[in-house]
Structures are given as C-alpha cells and as structure tokens.
Design goal:
Elements: H1 8-25, H2 51-66, H3 75-98, E1 102-104, E2 110-112, H4 123-164, H5 176-184, H6 206-225, H7 232-251, H8 263-286, H9 293-301, H10 303-317, E3 321-322, E4 327-328, H11 329-342, H12 344-368
Helix pairs in contact: 1-2, 1-8, 1-9, 1-10, 1-12, 2-4, 2-6, 3-4, 4-6, 6-8, 7-8, 9-12, 11-12
C-alpha cells in the first residue's frame, strides 16, 4: 500500500455499512421482513445489529487519519473543532427527528409537529456523542489512555447495571438506563417503539458505544503504522478473533444486547468489524481488487449526508396520501407496485434495495460533481 494512497478499503467498509443501514431501515412492510434484516427482539445479535456499531467503528477508523492535523493545533482549537462537529451532527439528528415539521391530525389536516414531543436522541445523536467523547479522550490521553478509559467504561457500565438495575438488570424494565433517560430526557422526548418510553440510543448506554469508536481508531492507527510490516494482517485477524471470543464469553454473564448496548456487544461487534476490515484491506489494498468496489465507495465518500437523505426521503413519503384508502406514498408503493409484482417478502426486500439504488444515484452524481459534504 502506498503511504499517500487513499485508504480505499475504509471507504468500501463505510459504504457497505451505509448501504446496509438504508436497506434495513426501508423495508416495504415491517410485517414482511426476512429474519436477518430485523434487530434481535432483545438479547442476541442478528446481521442487522452489526450495522450501527460498524458505522461507529468506521467513524473511529476515519478519525485515525483526520486527527493527525490536530498535532499542529492548540488544545483550545482542537476542543473547539471537536465540540463544533459534535454539536453539528447532534443538531442534524434533531432536525431529522423533527422533519418534515408537520403531520396529519385526526381529521386529516396538516398541523405543526410539537417540540414538546420531539425525540432528543437518535442514531446521529449517538454518533455525535461517541465521536466527541472518543476524540477528546484520544487527543488528551493519547491512544493508550483512551483505551484504558474505554475499558473503565465497559466494566463500569456492567457494574452500574448489575448493582443498580434491581432483580433483572438486563431487562427492558430493569435497565437502569431507562430511569436515567426518563429523569434527564423526559418521557415525552423518548422513543416509543418498545411499547413504553425507552431510548435505544440512551445516555447511559452511550458509554460502552464509545468503545466502538476508540477501537476503530486503534485499528486504523495500527494499520497505518504497520502497513508494510510482515504479519500485520495476521495480527489484525487474531485481534478481531480474540475480541469476538471475549465478547461471547462475557455474553454468558452480561448478555450481548444492542438495545442496551452491553459491553459484551461492544467487544463482539468490534471483533467482527476488525475481521471484515481485514478482509477488505487484503483484497483492496494488498491484492488491488477493484471489481465492484466503486458501488460502495460512492456511499463511503458522503456517508452522513446520504444517510440523512435516506431519512428525509422516507419522511417525505408519509406527507403524501393517495387513493380512496388515503394511503401514504410509502405504503402505496409497496402495496401497489412491489408486493403485487414480487410478492410479500421478496417485494419488501426489493423495496429496500430500490431505495439503496436510489440513494446510490444521488451519491454517484455527487461524486461525479466532486461534491463531498464534510461535517
């Protein structure tokens, strides 16, 4: 690998993650989704449960390249830059939660969406907090210190849940993070997809998710510093395998769970991400394999923007009502186009694939115009 060459395998890894995010978030019907494309109901880990932690890992990986310029800046300037980026990503997440700012009332009229029920947290908000905390730890404590603090986060989170979570600390109702979010965010500002106010991107569970960013940084730094070293890739594969085993073993007492982002889940997903990135480094950087990589590069060059646009497109669908049944455009497309032609489950899957391709076209156009949105 050339020292000055763009880290193409990272773009591919990041692009693959964004494409999968879009696919799992836009099925034609949530009642007709193949099992691997659904999150685990509670404990456990499906392929879909790997997508978000992979994105955080990619954020850390990219930081290992971007943070080099911090060495020439004052600490004040670095903190300002990190906090500004954190606040901007968080604000974009809030914007996406509120968008399109209006909704239908019970009589079918447009009314303004109330800020009193605006969900505060979300995917982008967690990305923002994990980036901000991870970047500050790495800059001020250096990678070794950041790793130590990450281990404290992982062990401390386990201890907090165990000692403060009651008789069933890893359940939905017993999770202490629920009480933290209720106290700080408030019931009206939390996610309700679990049948009660519960925040899967909660404040307390952000601590172990920082680990995905820090480990991603360490892997990226290791690859850069040892790109020509003999056995580099083997060591990376061994590290990923060890983390997977540790995650599984820890999971016997601290179950692997995305919704409360357990520490075992962090180790397990980091291990799998490390193995996948190792495969991509071998194929793309070492063997020079380029066949099919451009599809994922397109997503990887504008990841946050394309992810945000995927949410914007879906939310706009729900503003348009069609036909006598007054269906929203999202349901109408599935019920009148994809389901009749392809059937229930295949139609639902192809609906998601259609949106992956639609967003890819946007990314392709941006790449051809050399438009890269940096936050």
């Amino acid at each position: 690998m050339n020292q000055n060459q763009r880290f193409l395998s990272l773009d591919v890894f990041r692009g693959l993650t964004v494409a999968c995010m879009i696919l799992v978030n836009t099925p034609g019907s949530w009642a007709k989704v193949y099992g691997p494309l659904l999150h685990a109901k509670w404990h456990g880990c499906t392929p879909t449960d790997l997508v978000f932690p992979f994105f955080l890992f990619a954020v850390g990986n990219a930081m290992s390249f971007a943070m080099k310029k911090f060495n020439t800046m004052s600490n004040g300037a670095v903190v300002g830059k990190i906090l500004k980026r954190t606040a901007l990503i968080f604000a974009i997440g809030l914007f996406l939660n509120w968008f399109p700012f209006v909704k239908y009332d019970s009589e079918g009229n447009f009314v303004l969406k109330s800020l009193e029920t605006l969900r505060i947290m979300g995917v982008l908000q967690r990305i923002a907090l994990c980036y901000g905390i991870g970047a500050l730890l790495i800059h001020f404590l250096k990678p070794k210190g950041a790793l130590i603090v990450t281990c404290i986060f992982l062990l401390g989170y386990w201890a907090i849940l165990w000692f403060l979570g009651g008789n069933d600390p890893y359940s939905l109702e017993g999770h202490i993070g629920l009480q933290v979010d209720l106290a700080i965010l408030g019931e009206s500002h939390m996610y309700r997809g679990e049948g009660l106010p519960f925040e899967p991107e909660g404040l307390l569970s952000t601590l172990p998710s920082v680990g995905n960013v820090v480990f991603g940084f360490l892997v990226g730094q290791y690859v850069q510093q040892n790109r020509h070293a003999k056995g580099m890739l083997l060591k990376l594969v061994m590290a990923g395998s060890i983390l997977i085993v540790l995650g599984i073993l820890w999971g016997t007492v601290f179950p692997i769970n995305k919704k409360i982002w357990t520490s075992s889940y962090t180790l397990y997903t980091v291990g799998i991400a490390t193995l996948l990135l190792s495969i991509l480094i071998y194929l793309v950087e070492m063997r020079g394999w380029r066949r099919g990589t451009y599809f994922f590069e397109v997503f990887g060059k504008n990841p946050l923007f394309i992810y945000v646009m995927s949410g914007v497109v879906v939310k706009l669908y729900f503003l348009f009502r069609i036909g006598e049944k007054n269906e929203n455009l999202y349901s109408w497309l599935y019920n009148h186009v994809f389901q009749p032609v392809f059937g229930d489950y295949p139609g639902s899957l192809l609906f998601g694939i259609f949106h992956v391709l639609l967003l890819w076209l946007l990314g392709w156009w941006m790449d051809k115009k050399r438009i890269y949105v940096r936050v």
